[in-house]
Amino acid sequence: MHNTTPRRGLKRGAIRLTRRGRIALIAIGIAAAATAVAVPLLLPEEEPRPKTLTIPEGWRSVQVYEAVDKALDVPAGTTKQAVSKTDLKLPGDAGGNPEGYLFPATYPLSSQSTPASVLSYMVNTANKKFSGGHVTAGADRNAVNVYQTVTIASMVEAEADNPADMGKVARVIYNRLDRGMPLQMDSTINYALNRSTLRTTSRDTKIGSPYNTYARMGLPPTPIANPGEAAMRAATSPTQGTGCTS
Q: What does 173-215 look like in DSSP terms, one character per residue?
């Protein structure tokens, strides 16, 4: 009669592997590990960062911030937050607000580009463009400073239907300033309301904002967009005339 009692030390259900079996399991494990490592390499590659960023004439700073965020693939709002943390070479009149000094152009981007570096590039470009003798001479001739000239150019950019009308719009602005008239520019109200529209209602003209040029005299406190070279030329050398309506 055979002894059916399990051998001491060997649990029921335990399986003993032969040397060949152990080798097979090891091989399977290695293959599985190799597959796990290979999977990420098979995923689609991320889209490469664009090599340039183009800022059109007349964009507001909020539009520029959004474009930089997208181009650099950073979370929304990152570029706007970078403004206060970056030593931008802005004029004292700007009070740290780069509106008007994010110069419209095509800027190169690299893997090292950051919101701060891109903003600095734009402001430095604006300073070079706005420091030319024709700009300072034009500002003196029109009895305004350079920052005010940029502010006027930003309104010209927003108000003119085409480049040919820019000089005429600039002349209207200067004539109204000289005669102590409110500028009554719809573009400044649109800026205050963060919108773009061709219709301005009577109610709109009563909003309590320093950008309401219907109710307040003089220029708005800052530029309302980022003007290009054509608008700056119009602001420094407006069309001659005495009209006060556009």
A: HHHHHHTT-----HHHHHHHTT---S---TTGGG---TT-TTT
Q: Other CB atoms closer than 10 Å to residue 182's CB: what's the count?
A: 15
DSSP string, 70-98: HHHT--TTHHHHHHTTS-----GGGTT--
| Rounded Cα gap, residues 197 and 211, in angstroms | 16
Are 230 and 166 contacting, i.e. CB atoms less than 8 angstroms apart? yes
**Domain assignment of residue 71, given as a range:** 52-131
Residue 216 lies in a domain: yes
**In this structure, what token pair is assigned to residue 35?**
């597959």
| 38 inside domain | no
56, 118: one domain: yes
pTM for the whole structure: 0.80
Give the residue among 114, 127, 123 at the shortest CA–CA distance from 82.
114
What local confidence, expressed as pLDDT, does residue 244 receive?
Answer: 76
* Residue 221 identity: P
Residues 167, 232: Cα–Cα separation, whole Å = 10
pLDDT digits (tens, 9 = 90+) for 10-40: 444 444 555 555 555 455 555 444 444 444 4
The per-residue pLDDT for range 181-225, each reduced to its tens digit, is 999 999 999 999 999 877 889 999 999 999 999 999 999 999 999
* Residue 114 and residue 165 share a domain: no
Tally of domains in the chain: 2
Q: Residue 14 domain-assigned?
A: no
In a domain, 66, yes or no: yes
